[in-house]
């Protein structure tokens, strides 16, 4: 465990090197040949995803950098999806960014660096690594939000994102310092061991530290009451950046939540479970109820994200019953499936917004989708699938995400909260799903039941058309044959918890 | 009986694949081709259900034409299909009604033809899936998925207030079925991690969980049936939906709810069913009597038939919860018969609406003078709607009344009032619309039904008469399964 074992970090090393290379190459090629660096970025992402795939097939848990770093099946699955989703973001961003003069080398480099941060977070095995990855990802994203520097709304969003993000990092760091102070270690496995064997200075400090850790995670996840930044950033940031924020970083937050709460603070589950339950219910309520009132599609999706994260939180606290890893694997793999499918679906939804946007037109109001079925039946159908998936209506993948979460919730017996509480939480969750269905249906209504007010043809590059179509089809196909992705998540989580 | 081909899978996927084909390849530039392909798809869908009728063994109570393959290993869910006497007729009915609907939309639908037919074909396959699923999760997926095409059908091709109706339809039914989802997951654990519907019948459950499960199922199915007082979405949906949508809604979608009672509430939570039978019976009687009166005062023909559907479905739920062979059989016969009759009534209204663009009873009068052939058909269906002997409407109602009298004389007595109420609202509407002097010049300009309209009305008329005169083939197929069901309902599942 004490050797460097650099090879275990091959995806991150490859990615960081590629980012540097692209930064360099971009200085020497002109505006006209930007496609070179675009292609290089996509190639780098595919290679990274492939390496993760190879690692995944080896099904091993490998530590690196003297235990600061871990590559396990869960990390490989999440990294693979993070890399692929970042690639899709670049494809979707193309037309939009070109029209607005954002199609520069730094866009690629910052996106790749944000992904590198995401991957470090996913593989973190020490409090220090968690923080390092988080900051790398966050700094790259702050810069990306502000990349349209002459746009007032984007600047405001960047400011908000930075200030609140820094606050969240502060929370997390403060919590970590307390954990370190109480347990005397930064290593997550050792932390759990020390707590379990009672070698801690003060249990009160540990619990207080946990409170700050949970608050920091909730900030990053956008759970109520730490959600204030999310709608403004989603709405204000350039759409491709919103998409970037909404996908890979969500996978990363899921991963660090797992690392910190399950790997590090499992013995304190009794303490953090009620916190997560509270966050879940508040997020479901506030996110879904507020989304109803939105007319801006990006802002509506922001509130819907809050609600979706609330749903995912339900699975995250329901797994650990007295340290029983069997049900923990079940519950956390449900949350993992949820966050992955959420990322896939979100990619498609923002893809549609980017498809409809053009020079001087953002297509970010719900009414901008009016009559889409007339203008392009296929993309309207794709959006229909995506909306029903977010609403959790079968036969789309979003249904299974909700199903496995409910299954985890009801199956847990709810160590901390008692049996009937699980049923009540499930009832609350489905009732807010009903509320959510209303605003997703409204998008479908606008596309199908109304006549278009804008009849200009939809132009998009062929790679975007293909990617978006595949993305939409994937959500439907996964809704008919979800077993493979479900099994992948279950096995990865089982192996990670068992190994 | 050894079947060689997966007929049920074919019955589900044939219409869906045709639907997807039309959706993907159909262009509104050549609607003729789209219509022809849709008709071919619906006929193929009907054709593959024939072996189900021919090869069905009526002596057997168990599921037949079984197909089983592992589907989601993590959840232990199977792609498990089968039909028994309770469901086999609904598979055939669904395929049959789909053909009628395709014919009914032939000249009427002119905008987005491809999407219209695709939605109906996909919907048809999904509904067959509901009737043939033997896995709880599979059932739920088909059950829920039907909402999507219906939402689109009402919202795109519906009347002026279609958006409101589409939302109300979707959210009402979703609200019920989400609670059922929790019940399904609960049962999954109670059964030791299985979604097997057949196995669920043997799961021992204390009374309190049974009652909660029953109420969750009740939430899903009572909205779908719909039972009073959660019926208010139905008149809205019917009035706004295009004719084809109304036909499918009344003829099949309502049966999904009633079928759910048969498949879930009765055999899985029998003690709760006995415990709460008074509630269901009371609500059913309210539907029969009160909603019958509501139907009487409607001025819109579609609304009138919609309320009459609620009243007739009240009969169905009443039949289920008197717990005897004749009551349950009568209820199932009533479901099938109502599929034909309500479908036919909505088609008749559609025929008039296509010509007059009005559903108001007051706008009509004296139609018989200009449309004699049509008037004859509508006469038959109106009579069937009020349960005239010799039509299918009589058989089901008569059986249910017999069953109810057997259970309790006064319940049977109250239920029997439907015979006069049904006659009142059906025939009074018929009189005001069809008879009398020609009310206005629009009626005077009406032309009688053409060959296509004659065809679908004649098909339905034949079905109504066949079932009314000789119901034996229908009851024969379901007898053994109903007896088996009642045996399950009779056994207490409370662990000793």
Content-based structural category of chain B: mainly alpha
List unreliable stretches of 5+ residues of chain B: none
Q: Characterize the main sheet of chain A.
A: 2 strands, antiparallel
First CA to last CA of chain B: what distance?
Answer: 38 Å
Task: Please characterize this protein's 3D structure.
The complex is a heterodimer of chains A (499) and B (496). Chain A has 499 residues and is mainly alpha-helical. Chain A contains 20 helices and two strands. In chain A, strand 1 and strand 2 (69-71) form a beta hairpin. Chain A starts with 9 loop residues before the first helix and ends with a helix. In chain A, 62% of the residues are buried. The model of chain A has no long low-confidence stretch (mean pLDDT 89). In chain B, strands 1-2 form a two-stranded antiparallel sheet. Chain B is globular and about 75 Å long. At the A-B interface, helix 16, helix 17, helix 18 and helix 20 of A face helix 6, helix 7 and helix 8 of B.
């Amino acid at each position: 465990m004490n050797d460097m074992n650099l090879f275990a970090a091959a995806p991150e090393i490859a990615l960081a090197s590629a980012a540097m290379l692209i930064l360099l190459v971009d200085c020497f090629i002109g505006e006209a040949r930007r496609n070179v660096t675009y292609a290089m970025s996509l190639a780098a992402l595919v290679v990274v995803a492939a390496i993760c795939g190879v690692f995944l097939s080896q099904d091993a848990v490998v530590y690196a950098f003297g235990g600061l770093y871990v590559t396990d099946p869960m990390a490989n699955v999440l990294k693979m999806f993070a890399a692929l989703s970042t690639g899709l973001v670049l494809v979707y961003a193309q037309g939009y960014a070109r029209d607005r003069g954002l199609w520069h080398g730094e866009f690629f480099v910052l996106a790749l660096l944000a992904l590198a941060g995401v991957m470090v977070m996913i593989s973190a095995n020490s409090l220090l690594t968690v923080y390092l990855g988080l900051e790398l990802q966050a700094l790259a994203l702050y810069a990306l939000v502000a990349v349209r520097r002459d746009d007032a709304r984007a600047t405001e969003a960047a400011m908000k994102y930075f200030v609140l993000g820094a606050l969240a990092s502060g929370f997390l760091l403060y919590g970590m310092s307390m954990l370190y102070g109480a347990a005397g270690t930064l290593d997550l496995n050792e932390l759990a061991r020390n707590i379990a064997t009672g070698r801690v200075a003060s249990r009160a400090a540990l619990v207080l530290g946990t409170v700050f850790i949970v608050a920091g995670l909730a900030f990053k996840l956008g759970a109520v009451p730490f959600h204030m930044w999310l709608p403004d950033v989603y709405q204000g940031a350039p759409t491709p950046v919103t998409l970037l924020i909404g996908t890979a970083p969500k996978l990363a937050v899921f991963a660090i939540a797992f690392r910190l709460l399950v790997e590090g603070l499992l013995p304190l589950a009794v303490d953090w479970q009620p916190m997560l339950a509270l966050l879940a219910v508040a997020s479901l309520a506030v996110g879904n109820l507020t989304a109803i009132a939105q007319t801006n599609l990006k802002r509506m999706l922001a509130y819907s994200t809050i609600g979706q994260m609330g749903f995912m939180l339900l699975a995250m606290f329901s797994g650990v019953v007295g340290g029983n890893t069997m049900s923990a694997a079940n519950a956390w793999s449900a949350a993992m499936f949820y966050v992955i499918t959420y990322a896939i679906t979100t990619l498609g939804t923002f893809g549609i917004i980017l498809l409809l946007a053009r020079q001087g037109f953002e297509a970010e109001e719900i009414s901008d989708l009016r009559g889409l079925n007339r203008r392009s039946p296929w993309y309207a159908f794709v959006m229909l699938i995506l909306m029903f998936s977010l609403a959790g209506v079968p036969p789309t993948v979003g249904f299974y995400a909700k199903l496995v979460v409910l299954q985890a919730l009801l199956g847990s017996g709810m160590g901390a909260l008692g049996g009937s509480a699980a049923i009540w939480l499930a009832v609350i969750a489905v009732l807010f799903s009903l509320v959510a269905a209303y605003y997703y249906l409204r998008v479908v209504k606008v596309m199908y039941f109304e006549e278009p007010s804008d009849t200009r043809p939809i132009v998009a590059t062929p790679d975007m058309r293909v990617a978006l179509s595949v993305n939409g089809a994937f959500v439907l196909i996964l809704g008919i044959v979800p077993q493979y992705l479900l099994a992948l998540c279950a096995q990865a989580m089982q192996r990670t918890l068992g190994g | 009986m050894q079947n060689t081909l997966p007929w049920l899978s074919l019955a589900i996927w044939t219409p869906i694949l045709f639907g997807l084909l039309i959706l993907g390849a159909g262009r509104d530039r050549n609607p003729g081709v789209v219509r022809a392909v849709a008709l071919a798809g619906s006929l193929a869908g009907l054709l593959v259900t024939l072996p189900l009728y021919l090869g069905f063994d009526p002596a057997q109570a168990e599921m037949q034409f079984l197909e089983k393959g592992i589907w989601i290993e993590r959840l232990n869910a199977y792609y498990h299909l089968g039909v028994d006497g309770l469901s086999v007729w609904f598979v055939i009915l669904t395929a049959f009604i789909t053909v009628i609907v395709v014919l009914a939309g032939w000249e009427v639908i002119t905008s987005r033809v491809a999407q219209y037919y695709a939605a109906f074909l996909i919907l048809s396959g999904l509904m067959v899936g509901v009737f043939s699923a033997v896995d709880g999760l599979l059932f739920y997926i088909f059950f829920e998925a039907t909402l999507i095409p219906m939402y689109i059908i009402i919202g795109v091709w519906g009347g002026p207030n279609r958006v409101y109706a589409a939302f109300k339809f979707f959210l009402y039914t979703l609200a019920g079925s989400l609670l059922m989802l929790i019940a399904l997951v609960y049962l999954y654990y109670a059964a030791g991690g299985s979604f097997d519907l057949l196995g669920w019948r043997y799961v021992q459950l204390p009374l309190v969980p049974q009652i909660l499960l029953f109420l969750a199922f009740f939430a899903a199915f009572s909205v779908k049936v719909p039972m009073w007082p959660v019926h208010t979405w139905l008149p809205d949906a019917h009035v706004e939906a295009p004719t084809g949508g109304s036909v499918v809604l009344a003829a099949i979608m309502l049966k999904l709810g009633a079928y759910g009672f048969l498949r879930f509430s009765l055999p899985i939570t029998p003690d709760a069913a006995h415990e709460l039978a008074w509630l269901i019976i009371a609500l059913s009687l309210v539907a029969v009597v009160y909603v019958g009166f509501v139907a009487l005062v409607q001025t819109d023909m579609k609304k009138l038939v919609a309320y009459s559907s609620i009243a007739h479905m009240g009969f169905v739920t009443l039949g289920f919860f008197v717990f005897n062979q004749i009551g349950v059989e009568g209820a199932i016969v009533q479901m099938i018969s109502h599929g034909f009759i309500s479908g036919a009534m909505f088609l008749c209204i559609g025929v008039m609406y296509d010509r007059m663009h009005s559903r108001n009873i007051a706008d009509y009068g004296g139609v018989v003078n200009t449309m004699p052939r049509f008037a004859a058909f509508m006469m038959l269906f109106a009579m069937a709607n009020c349960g005239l002997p010799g039509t299918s409407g009589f058989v089901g109602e008569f059986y249910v009344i017999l069953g109810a009298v057997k259970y309790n004389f006064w319940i049977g007595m109250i239920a029997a009032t439907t015979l006069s109420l049904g006659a009142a609202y059906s025939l009074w509407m018929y009189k005001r619309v069809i008879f009398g002097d020609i009310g206005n010049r629009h009626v005077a300009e009406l032309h009688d039904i053409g060959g296509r309209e004659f065809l679908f009305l004649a098909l339905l008329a034949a079905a109504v008469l066949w079932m009314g005169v000789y119901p034996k083939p229908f009851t024969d197929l379901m007898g053994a399964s109903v007896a088996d069901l009642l045996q399950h309902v009779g056994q207490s599942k409370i662990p000793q």
